[in-house]
């Protein structure tokens, strides 16, 4: 075991995520698409229980899969990948370390020990990576619709095609970071910290509630978790949706398939309930506008229920008429067979590979993403209204999205 990993950390500039007010990213904006100039970052990942007693290379090659095994070996040899291991010490050993000026109980495992090291509980894998964030639709300050703002909350109309908060290949290209860095109408950036109070899919637009304090964030989150908040969404779907004064209710379990986790851990099933009401129909397009009232808050709930009702969202890339998980692929809402799972995984892997080019980065040698098309970053699902209570609560409502004008 070693405590030092050579000169690598001294030679490369590293910009830490979340260091607000220190280093602002360089955005490149062209044809309505916003890109972040690549940057270096320290990434720390706590070891999961299923990784115990497996080698670092095994985990990187099977779970992370950003590069092939040979590239991970090269990075481990260069100490671009290390492990922080917490020692199990007696009181006497800990006292001795403190007297020697060693203030923590960890050691950093680098090359060559890391090549055959088997991961232990509480280990942390650290990687220095050259980050290439995915592109998003550009947000112009003057186009942001501010629904409500006071000392505790900011409520805005989120555009489609951008995640609310940092996730996977999006950090500076997340809605919250762009607002924190660039501000919003009537408010210049002053390093304010915004806390998202709920989730919206990247492709979903609409009501987005941010809190300006941890206390306010907890309050809004609890109101939503306790199902005290009525949510109303708009969707543009295929076909003529049934007209019924009481609405159409779907009670299908929501089954979400995550092919990255494998058959055992990648299938999640939860009970769900959504009420749908017809708004209008365009005969020429054979499309309807539907109002959606989710009574539970499951991942992709509205999208899955509309698919199961055979009125999928027109341009939904997952559950739509041309989506990865459309009904025509043999999906049974009540059962996910191993054959179906492997079929979806094969399609997902093909789609992922098609999103990469043969052009490689001069700095890190990773494959560059194919340019995104703006039209493919919009989905016709919109969070139209969030309301707490009938009388004394609050209500936040956006304008109608342009795509609803059919």
From TrEMBL:
Residues 153-307 form the Pseudouridine synthase RsuA/RluA-like domain. SUPFAM superfamilies: Pseudouridine synthase. GO terms for biological process: enzyme-directed rRNA pseudouridine synthesis. One of its GO terms (molecular function) is pseudouridine synthase activity. InterPro entries: PsdUridine_synth_cat_dom_sf, PsdUridine_synth_RsuA/RluA, RluA_PseudoU_synthase. It comes from the Eukaryota. Pfam families: PseudoU_synth_2. PANTHER family: MITOCHONDRIAL RNA PSEUDOURIDINE SYNTHASE, PSEUDOURIDYLATE SYNTHASE RPUSD2. This is Pseudouridine synthase RsuA/RluA-like domain-containing protein. It comes from Pichia kudriavzevii. The lineage of its organism: Eukaryota, Fungi, Dikarya, Ascomycota, Saccharomycotina.
């Amino acid at each position: 075991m070693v405590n030092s990993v050579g000169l690598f950390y001294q030679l490369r500039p590293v910009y830490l995520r979340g260091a607000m007010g220190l280093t602002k990213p360089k955005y490149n904006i062209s044809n309505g698409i916003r890109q972040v100039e690549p940057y270096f970052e320290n990434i720390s990942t706590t070891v999961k229980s299923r990784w115990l007693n497996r080698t670092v290379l095994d985990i990187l090659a099977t779970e992370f899969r950003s590069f092939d095994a040979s590239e991970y070996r090269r990075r481990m040899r260069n100490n671009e990948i290390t492990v922080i291991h917490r020692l199990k010490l007696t009181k006497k050993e800990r006292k001795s370390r403190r007297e020697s000026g060693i203030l923590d109980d960890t050691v950093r495992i680098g090359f060559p020990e890391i090549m055959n090291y088997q991961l232990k509980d509480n280990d942390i894998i650290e990687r220095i990576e050259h980050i290439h964030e995915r592109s998003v639709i550009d947000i112009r300050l003057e186009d942001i619709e501010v629904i409500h703002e006071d000392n505790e909350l900011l409520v805005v109309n989120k555009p489609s095609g951008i995640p609310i908060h940092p996730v996977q290949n999006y950090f500076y290209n997340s809605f919250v970071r762009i607002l924190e860095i660039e501000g919003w109408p009537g408010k210049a950036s002053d390093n304010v910290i915004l806390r998202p109070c709920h989730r919206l899919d990247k492709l979903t637009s609409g009501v987005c509630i941010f809190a300006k304090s941890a206390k306010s964030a907890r309050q809004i989150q609890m109101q939503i978790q306790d199902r005290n908040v009525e949510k109303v969404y708009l969707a543009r779907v295929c076909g003529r949706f049934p007209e019924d004064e009481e609405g159409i209710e779907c009670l299908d379990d929501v089954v979400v398939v995550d092919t990255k986790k494998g058959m055992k851990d990648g299938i999640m099933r939860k009970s769900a309930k959504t009420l749908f009401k017809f708004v209008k129909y365009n005969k020429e397009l054979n499309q309807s506008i539907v109002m959606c009232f989710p009574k539970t808050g499951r991942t992709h709930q509205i999208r899955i229920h509309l698919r199961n009702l055979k009125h999928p969202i027109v341009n939904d890339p997952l559950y739509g008429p041309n989506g990865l998980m459309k009904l025509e692929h043999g999906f049974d809402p009540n059962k996910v067979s191993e054959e179906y799972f492997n079929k979806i995984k094969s399609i997902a892997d093909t789609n992922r590979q098609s999103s990469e080019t043969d052009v490689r980065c001069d700095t890190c040698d990773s494959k560059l993403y194919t340019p995104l098309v703006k039209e493919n970053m919009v989905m016709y699902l919109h969070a139209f209204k969030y309301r707490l209570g009938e009388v004394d609560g609050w209500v936040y409502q956006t304008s109608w999205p342009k795509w609803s004008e059919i």
